[in-house]
Amino acid sequence: MASDAPVALLTGTNRGSGRAIAAALHDRGYQVRSLNRTTSGESWLGEHRCDLADPAQLAESVAQVLAETGRLDACVANAVDRVLDPIEKLSAEDWDRIVAVNLTSVFHLIKAVLPALRHSGGLFVTMGSNASTHYFEGGAVYSATKAAVKALMETLLLEERGNGVRGCLVTPGAIANLEGDHAPYKISIESVGQCVASIIDAWPTDLVVGEVELRPAALPRPPVTGIDRLLHV
C-alpha cells in the first residue's frame, strides 16, 4: 500500500553496514525496501529475495517495490561480494561473479530506478571503498570493481543532475562489518549507517555531495599487508 512516507530501496541489508543504513533510515521515518540474496525475515526491512548477479531478477524486484510503494526517494547500492585471492589463484568464476555483483548490478539498478528518481528528484548512493585507490595483495577484483563504480557514479552525476537526480559515492576505509568485530581501528557499522542516512535525509537538496570519504579515527601501528592496508588510509 502506498504511503506519504519517503521510500528508500537498499541492496544487501541482511547484515553489517547495509542493515545499519537501513535501520538509520527506518528510524528517520523512511519506508525501507531491500533486495537481498539471503533474507533475514525482519518485516521492517521490506525484503525481496533477489540475486543481484541476475539482471532479470533485479529488474523484476525493483518493479515489485515500485508497485508496492508508488514512489522512490533514495536508492543505496550497498551489496558486495568479495574474494581475496591473489591473481594467480583467483578463478575466472569468482572474477565474473564479483564483477556482476559489485559493478554490473549497480548499472542495472540505476537503469531500473532512474525514472522513479527523476520523478521524485531523488538520490542514488553507492557504497564504494578506499580499495579503489589504495591497493593490497589479494584485492585485484575487489579494487577493480570499486574503481569502476567511482567512474560510473561520476558519469551518472554528469548525465542526470539536469534531470533532478543526485548521486553520491560513499568511500569508506575499514569497516567492522563482520559480527563480533569490535576492532578499534575500524569504523563501526552504526557510524556508517548514521552517515549515509544523514546524506539522504538531512543534507540540503540544492547541493550535490559527489563523494564522501570515511576514514577510521584511529590508526594501528605499521607494518601491515593485504586488506589491512585499508586501515592506514
UniProtKB/TrEMBL annotation:
Q: Looking at the Swiss-Prot or TrEMBL record, what is one Pfam family this protein matches? A: adh_short
- Where in the sequence is the signal peptide annotated? none
Tell me which PANTHER family the record gives: EG:BACR7A4.14 PROTEIN-RELATED (PTHR43975:SF2), ZGC:101858 (PTHR43975)
* Name of this protein: Short-chain dehydrogenase
Organism of origin is Streptomyces varsoviensis
